[in-house]
Amino acid sequence: MKEKVNDLLLPKSTRRSFLNILIGLGFSVLSVLTVYPIIRYLWPSMNSGGTNESWITISLTELPNGKSKVVVIGGKPVIVVRTNEEVFALSAVCTHLGCIVKWDASLNRLICPCHAASFDLNGNVLGGPAPKPLSVISTKIVRESILIGKA
Q1: Sheet strands side by side (includes 102-104)
Q2: Which of 17, 61, 102, 144 has a CA that sits 20 to 30 A from residue 44's CA?
Q3: Nearest residue to 134 (alpha-carbon basis) of 126, 117, 122
Q4: Among 104, 77, 102, which residue's Cα sits nearest to residue 91?
């Protein structure tokens, strides 16, 4: 009788119970490794790289006429385009599926390389599947520097 009570409280370890525990732990680890990237994708960090600055400055010599440059402001990419003596800054994230837009100097437009959406320098949609215009970021030329963002 005493042995039966001990067996109920502390069952004997067998090879099968050990393997069941090992398989259960393996499936648990595999589940965590599968679910973690999905959660990180659905709830990305608000500051995923770049600086926390709400504005930056770049030199006019870094951005010649007719050229563009992608900078990061507040963790988000911003494309800065210089034409003649004007400077434009817009969100570099396409409003269609989030690709980074590129400047096409020959067409004087911003083009999304993924699905061919195009935008003018004011962010307005000129063609393609983009549902909304690009956000405009304020710019100001101060001496020999370009101030981009909220100062």
Answers
A1: 102-104, 109-111, 118-119, 125-127
A2: 102
A3: 122
A4: 77
Task: Give the closest residue to 148 by CA, choosing from 133, 137, 135, 136.
Answer: 137
> Alpha carbon of 149 to those of 10, 52, 125: distances in Å?
67, 12, 22
Q: How does pLDDT run across 111-142, given as a tens digit for each residue?
A: 998 888 999 988 899 988 888 999 998 888 88
* Residue reference for tokens 């069941």: 20
> What does pTM read for this prediction?
0.64
C-beta neighbour count of 58 within 10 angstroms: 16
